[in-house]
Structures are given as structure tokens and as C-alpha cells.
Design goal:
By secondary structure, the chain is mainly alpha-helical. The protein is 58% helix and 3% strand.
Length: 182
Amino acid sequence: MSPGGHLVTTAAVCTAAAVTTGSWPLVAGLAAGGFWIDVDHAVDYVAVERRRDLRPAAFLRYYLEGRVRRTVLVLHSYELFAILLALAWTTGSPWLLGGVGGGLMHLALDLAFNGEFTPRSIVRFYSFAYRARHGFDAARLLGSGPPREVAAGFWRAFLGGAQVESAVLDSPGDHASARRRG
């Protein structure tokens, strides 16, 4: 899902939670888990990928165009959510409950929308142990999906994300990889 899509869905869920529960710790947790979880992309961009162009547009294009070589993404993992869920359950912390809820929403949206770009299992990708076993190598983890088109301009790319290039040929109907539907 595009960053803008995560922002919009998180804002909607936070608004609904604020109106129905009035719990600001819950709302803050939902915001952290639903949108700010993506801070791990920025950490990977600088610390793992060693990218030095810190302009938001350069960072966004790097990800949306599928140029990533390593994918550590510590916050995008089932294992972390299992630990956080156990902590939230035992402590009853509304902040942690919101964080887990927002994060699980974020992962569910990623699973639903990001699989279009990879012929490999997007479900297994969100296991940290699976990524570690594959050396966090994006090509080994995700394969080389179809070419991506990214809208010109920061806000259009932020809100629209990437699209499969229209020149990609259809694959057979029973094939698991992404294909352009006409």
C-alpha cells in the first residue's frame, strides 16, 4: 500500500477510536502502529542501504520503484507483533493495544496490496526469521517483480504508490505472479 494509503486508513481508524473510546493513549498507539511503523524503511534506507540522499522524494522513489537491495524492516515482522501482543495482553496498556492493532492493520494492508509486485510469497516475507535466513536480500526474498510506474511529483507518488507498468504481458490465469488486468 502507498504511504498515503496508510496515512488515510490510519487517520480514519484513529478518528473512529477517538470518537468511540475517547482514549488518547489508544489513538496514539494506533497512529504509531498504523503509520509510523514505516520509520523502519527510513532506518534501512540510511543504515542498511547506505543511501545519503535524504530528500523525501528520493527516499520515496527508491522504495516505490523497487530499487531496494536489503530489507531488514525490524518493525514489519510477525515475531515483533507476537511479543507486543503478549506485552499488551499482560499489561493492558491502551497504548500498546493500539500499537498492535494499528500495526496489524498496517501489515494486513501491506499483504493485500504489496503482493502485486512480487512473484514470491509476500506472506512469508513479513517473518523476520524468514528474511534473516535469506540474508535480508530483497531479490532472494521478493524476486524480481514486474516493472513499476511511479507518478511524477512527491504527493502523487505518496498518495498513489507504484503501479505495475502497463507494458507487462498477462501471465496465465493460474500463475501466481502479478499481471496487468485489461
